[in-house]
Design goal:
Number of strands: 20
CATH architecture of the largest domain: 2-Layer Sandwich
Mean pLDDT: 95
Radius of gyration: 21 Å
Helix content: 25-40%
Number of helices: 12
Distance between the termini: 52 Å
CATH topology of the largest domain: D-amino Acid Aminotransferase, Chain A, domain 1
CATH class of the largest domain: Alpha Beta
Number of domains: 4
Shape: globular
Length: 414
């Protein structure tokens, strides 16, 4: 058999688990990325320094260098390029159109409307001068880029005079210069993790998401597996996922979706979905902890063109619990850090990501979720144990920040 040569699109933290897994299997790995301090660069056998949006150049390089598989995970921005390369070179993967059906928010909602999946009322915006009068929906509204991630460019609109600045902000953060204007739906967020093979949907797990209490910023603080939402509503979400998968019919891929659920009214509403695993180590760490299924292993084998009995894999799913915890620090200068080493010794703590927090460093206001601190990954037997373990982590870790006015402030967990 000729040597497998795997191309990973991007070299950020989300690609590290895939790169590590491939290297452990003895697979020759390549990454495409711009120069910079990307952790995946050191893990790759070869690096092609190029913008991930320069897709034709990536196709040419891949062909010239004998790439036999292409992959990415935990990042929306990479996957259209993964599909483009796979389609052009005839490698295992999904079509460019199938990936955009998930990653482009306007396209995703149009398909949901067509097949009857519940989404907020919405219109596409491509003109910065739009006044919103075509949108027959009462305030408040949400404006966001059609093709971004990490809560970048999102604004909640309470009054009409805030609309055009919000549209300009959303368009500025869109590669395709398109945005979406939609109604604000009130509910508890539920994360749905699954896998698709030939249009068939396999459920991995549901999680509840908690957000930071920040004005006009939609930044998750925690994701907790399993969800405690009513089973009948979770069943409706699963049915929506299957319906969308059947319609778009991807060849294979992890799918990460976010829903809002109103348990009082019994309504559900899909916020967005992506044909990739959840970030913050959801697909690489939390899903295996909560289900016993190493879904990144399945994804890698499928990308390599190897046969995988997906139904057999999912027949062995177990029921456990896992969560990530993030936090942020008030604006100022870090003066004290305690408890990190104690945390790492706890049997239920699986990862503590705090290398970017040092005494003497200045902290900035958190404006998007890429600025969160952590995560700290924990596991447990069930949801009650997860809640107990979260409390233990929060009691142990102590960080003090001196604000510009001299006040000493601590960690903000929610």
């Amino acid at each position: 058999m000729p040597e497998q040569k795997l191309l990973v699109i991007g070299a950020g933290i989300g690609q590290v688990p895939i790169l590590e897994k491939a290297r452990q299997s003895g697979i020759h790995t390549c990454v495409v990325t711009l120069p910079g301090n990307q952790p995946g660069i050191a893990l790759a056998d070869e690096v092609f320094y190029r913008d991930i949006y320069d897709r034709d150049a990536i196709v040419r390089w891949s062909k010239e260098n004998g790439v036999t598989a292409v992959i990415s995970d935990q990042n929306d921005l990479m996957n259209p390029t993964v599909a483009y390369v796979a389609e052009k070179l005839g490698l295992p993967g999904n079509s460019f159109a199938q990936v955009l059906a998930y990653t482009n928010k306007n396209r995703y909602r149009e398909i949901c409307d067509r097949i009857g999946n519940p989404v907020p009322r919405h219109i596409a915006i491509t003109d910065a001068s739009s006044d919103g009068h075509a949108f027959a929906c009462p305030l408040p509204w949400i404006v966001k880029p059609a093709d971004s991630q990490s809560s970048v460019g999102i604004t909640k609109i309470e009054k009409m005079e805030d609309l055009q600045p919000a549209i300009a902000k959303a368009l500025a953060h869109s590669k395709t210069k398109s945005a979406i204007l939609e109604e604000f739906f009130v509910g508890q967020e539920v994360v749905c993790e699954g896998f698709i093979e030939n249009g068939r949907y396999y459920l991995l797990a549901f999680a509840d998401r908690r957000y930071f209490s920040l004005q006009n910023a939609f930044i998750p603080a925690q994701s907790l597996f399993p969800s405690t939402v009513r089973p009948d509503l979770l069943g409706q979400i699963r049915a929506c996922e299957q319906k969308f998968a059947e319609y778009v019919h991807p060849s294979f891929g992890i799918v990460h979706s976010e829903y809002l659920v109103n348990e009082e009214t019994g309504e559900i509403c899909v916020v967005e979905s992506a044909l990739r695993g959840g970030g913050v180590y959801i697909s690489s760490h939390l899903v295996p902890l909560a289900t016993g299924i190493d879904i990144n292993e399945v994804l890698l084998e499928k990308a390599l063109g190897n046969k995988v009995d997906v139904e057999e894999v999912f027949s062995k799913r177990k029921a456990a619990a896992a969560a990530y915890i993030c936090f942020y620090l008030p604006e100022g200068t870090i003066r004290r850090i305690e408890g990190v080493e104690e945390l790492k010794k706890l049997p239920f703590v699986r990862m503590v990501c705090m290398d970017d927090i040092r005494i003497g460093e200045t902290t900035q206001p958190m404006i998007h979720k890429g600025m969160r601190k952590g995560p700290i990954l924990i596991c447990g037997n069930d949801r009650a144990e997860i809640e107990k373990n979260i409390e233990a982590v929060q009691n142990i870790l102590k960080i003090e920040v001196e604000a510009p006015d001299g006040e000493i402030c601590g960690i903000v967990w929610e």
